[in-house]
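If your schedule permits, I should be very grateful for your opinion on a structural question. The matter concerns a single protein, recorded as an amino acid sequence and a row of backbone structure tokens. Could you please explain, in whatever detail you think fit, how the structure tokens follow from the sequence? I set the record out below, with my sincere thanks for your time.

——
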Amino acid sequence: MRWRQFDTILAAYWEAVGNPGSRGYYVSANPRLSFFFDDVSAIEVIGEGGPRPMARAIYVPAGMVVQTAFTRPLAFSHLDIHMDLGWAVGFLSGSMSRTDAIRALERPAERADIAGLEEIAGLLVGEIGRPLRPDLYAQALSGSLLAAMLDIGGAERLPGNARLTAAQMGRVTARFDAGGGRRMPVAEMAAAVNLSESWFSQVFKNTTGVTPQRWQLDRRMELAQGLLTGSALTVADIAERLGFSDQAHFTRSFRHAVGMTPAAWRRQRLLA
């Protein structure tokens, strides 16, 4: 690990190795940005919605605990930027109110795609190993990364009007379809379009009229109906393919959404 204390930030560059079954527990008194320079899908973040792959970049508010587990051997490198909260609030207040800046810094964020950001993070790593410029340069790089991670802008301050673009909805749909119809954590849906989970949930409902959870359930029921009429799979097989905990769980969900059990719905369609 190499590190350097600048005026308002501390930047640390790590080269690390993780073994299967290893676990991590991280908490910082300061807001933190982390950028991973390698594929870190072998690291799972443990949360309320179940484990999910680590994103290539994360913003963690002060005091928030991050727990991880390694699923396979991994050698990787990453940059951590610990920042003074007062500096971060002041920096963001240049484009929003102080209240909005504080709120933005209280929400975690993550990005699966760090194209464009990786180069900026690399410049800061260079300043750790071989300082060539004043602290203001490192702080400016950190501010750019913070602004990009939080995805700040006028639209986020108007939650009643904000919508996902067609391209963003396409990326969310593609991410869901790639999972074969299994339930996907909202955090992973948000990561597909580089938004924080809370903000994504707001604009997703503005766009579709339903919550991300309801949208997923509706799509899973559509897939289930297609499998019931277009395949010889048993109800239990369909429940397993779509990621339900068991046949009973699938049957309850299907009956609640469609009004009858999967078996009854299949008989009705086959006899029609």
Summary: The chain has a mean pLDDT of 90. The two ends are 68 Å apart (CA to CA). The beta strands are 2-5, 9-18, 23-26, 32-36, 43-45, 52-53, 57-60, 66-70, 74-83, 109-111.
